[in-house]
Write a structure and sequence with these properties.
The complex is a heterodimer of chains A (362) and B (520).
Chain A (H helix, E strand, L loop, with lengths): L1 E6 L5 H25 L4 H10 L5 H26 L7 H18 L9 H27 L3 H21 L34 H18 L1 H11 L1 H7 L3 H28 L10 H11 L4 H25 L5 H21 E6 L3 H4 L3
Helix pairs in contact in A: 1-2, 1-13, 2-12, 3-7, 3-8, 3-10, 3-11, 3-12, 4-5, 4-6, 4-10, 4-11, 5-6, 5-10, 7-8, 7-12, 8-9, 11-12, 11-13, 12-13
Chain B lengths: L14 E10 L2 E11 L4 E5 L6 H8 L7 E6 L2 E3 L4 H7 L1 E4 L11 H7 L7 H15 L14 H13 L5 E5 L7 H16 L3 E6 L2 H7 L2 E6 L2 E6 L6 H9 L17 E10 L9 E9 L3 E5 L6 H9 L10 E3 L2 E2 L5 H6 L2 E4 L14 H9 L5 E2 L2 E2 L1 H15 L15 H13 L5 E5 L7 H16 L3 E5 L3 H7 L2 E6 L2 E2 L3 E2 L5 H8 L16
Helix pairs in contact in B: 3-4, 3-5, 11-12, 11-13, 12-13, 13-14
Classes of the chains: A mainly alpha (362), B alpha/beta (520).
Chain lengths: 362, 520
Amino acid sequence: MRLVLEPRAERSTAAAIASPLIAVGLTLLVMSILFGFLGKDPLNALAVYFLQPLTDSYSLQEMVVKATPLVMIGIGLALCYLANVWNIGAEGQFVIGAVAGSYLAVKTQGTDAGTWVLPAMLVLGALGGALYALIPAICRVRFGASEILVSLMLVYVADLVLDYLVRGPWRDPHGYNFPTTADFDPVATVPSIIEGSRLHIGALMALVVVAAAWTVLGRTIKGFEIRVVGAAPKAARFAGFDADRLVLFTFAVSGALAGLAGIIEVAGPVGHLQPGISPGYGFTAIIVAFLGRLNPIGILIAGLFLALTFIGGEQAQISLKVPLDLTKVFQGILLFFVLACDSLILYRVRLIRTRKAADAVA
Amino acid sequence: MADPVATRVTSQPLLQAIGITKLYGTFVANDHIDLDLHPAQIHALLGENGAGKSTFVKMAYGLIQPNDGELRWLGRKTVLAGPAQARALGIGMVFQHFSLFENLTVAENVALGLPPSEPFAKISAGIAEISRRYGLPLEPRREVWRLSVGERQRIEIVRALLQNPKLLILDEPTSVLTPQEADQLFVVLESLKAEGRAILYISHKLDEVKRLCDTATILRGGKKVATCDPRRETAGSLARMMVGGEIGEVKSAAGERVGKPRLVVQDLSMVPDDPHGIRLDHVSVEVRGGEILGIAGVAGNGQDELFAALSGERLSASDGSVVIDGEAAGRFSISQRRRLGAAFVPEERLGHATAPRMTLSENALLTRHAVGMTHDGFINRAATIKVVDEATKAFDIRKAKRDPEAASLSGGNLQKFVVGREILRELGVLVVSQPTWGVDAGAAAVIRQALIDLAARGAAVLVISQDLDELLEIADRIAVIFTGRLSSPIESKTADREHLGLLMGGSSAQPREMSHAVGA
């Protein structure tokens, strides 16, 4: 017996929906085995990871808070990946967006600046992320450089810029030498949806981004352009679409969304600029984008699910004494399975009975 | 070289296929095919595209395995596990699409297909010997990219003959040749037959088969229709067996219909962006409203480059080199040219003319978004599906549902859609490349008729085709492209095939050997 992948005549809608679910299932299976090796009861461990956070309201809120940047960045990345453009550096664009927006917060600190500060910060954050993302895009269009490598390397540059600022010029003078800015003024802070809760209006903005992306991709000529350039470059050229301009466009948009997510994170849940503002949102969002099948609604669901793994991971660290890095292992395994299961959409698996003749080497 | 196969006249078939059946999923590609191949016979396998010819020869060469039925070699049941085994038995194959490395020499390419133990010097000597004996001129040390398509085919033939096969299979060998090159090939095949070799000759060209072959087996829809002596049949009776009915005759519109020039190409030169591409060299031509101008030529002589320059996929250096309806459009994008009333149908259906995994309505949007179908950047879905419905109705496109993916259509149906998508709007200029390549005879007739009708409505139609018969049928004037240069057009009514063939080989005024000094 051997397994054969046969191309399907049409892409299968059922498989398109089933593929991420199968991937999640296989990931849970592998995780159970891993827990077994660590000497934990697999079922109990999975419950701590994925069910316990859903049972109390604080964790649920926290899940939405963590899903907000994941969804925003994931949407931007999906636009890139649909166009066959590979932005791997959203983490850096997230950081630069946070830095660019924080500039205003730091400069207006303690002044009587009005309510315009926060909107201006958001605009600056998006702009910073977009400009930073345009660096790899321009390198690719002008010099043929790999946007994968350039965007990835710029992540580390962004981290160092952030490090320099919070340890140097922007450090809080009353902060006991901790590498952090002073807490942002109220006018420079993203307001909560409900008083006293950690849910902030960034979550609503993420929903708006999802709706906008859904409209653009499904209903507009720009969305069509993105899909054609990614799916059939020669046909796209025949359609009159300029692939180079689209590289710039998708990088700019995804950078803007990552930057926006960055400044919302800093001006919201974190409240000040410091190193380590992201537990790897920019990278996890890559998994979110693929798990959501590059579809805005799918990304919303996938973003919530991966946010759960962050929170579940923290809880598992406390109650099961397993390392926090297990979360990253989980996310990595998930990405592998998602990509593998995607082949089910275009191919069907068939068992073929082996015959000697068929196996002989041509 | 071993001795040629001893000439034996025997009643025992060399290769016998009994009830060969091949399934792809539920699709029956070959349905109980029986076929006997005798030594010293040229046996035609005749059928339309999709009739199952290629499937059958792949099984005869061991590339795929039949689901049912058996092959007998010299009377003994044989399972061909792979091409290596087929070659070891004495079966050689010349494919329609060559597998040659452009940057390697002729001898190197041949060596790659042989066991590594063969000494290289021996291979070179073998090539020289075979090319001398059969009149297949070939220079072993020449790089492949310098060679014409006909010469490339010779490499494949020589490669097969080096193994001294008893049976040689040729898949549509003349589809890439000029008429003269085809004649040369027939001489070679006759001498191979005289040596006692069996030849299985795949084709859909009736004249060729009648002229060359001793026996013909006709396939239709995966089934064997008949085995006959093609010389006793008429082209009409063969066609009826092949198609299973009468093919609609293409009617040209009556009367004089020559308007003013609508597509003018003036001194167009362009350097290719691909190092193996062809440089367009001072191309000039005028297509008037109401006429079809054909551009003949062997593949790889600048047709792709000319199409890209006319469509605007590549921009010219000067505005005036392409003029559409009086507008200098040389530096206009493809969308701007479409807005001037021009439309384009490229050669490659999947991947160029259409995005394979997108639906037909999305593929309608692909070329029509520049001329409607959107409102403030939003897609008018009703308009896109309307084009699909209109094309379906006008061209009788067969498909499983209203709006399927492009890749799920058969070649002929997709080509009807691709042509219909463009023709069903008001057009001034249509540039179409290989309009009926790989399309069944019924669809081809419909498409050719549509082109003629479009011209009759006053549009200028430029058809780039390697099929000289097609151009002689539909074009008013024919020009020939050779190594990026375009001859001046001649009236197709008075055109002489011989003359056109010589132009296609690049030897109008110059001696024939000039045709080898290509490119560089």
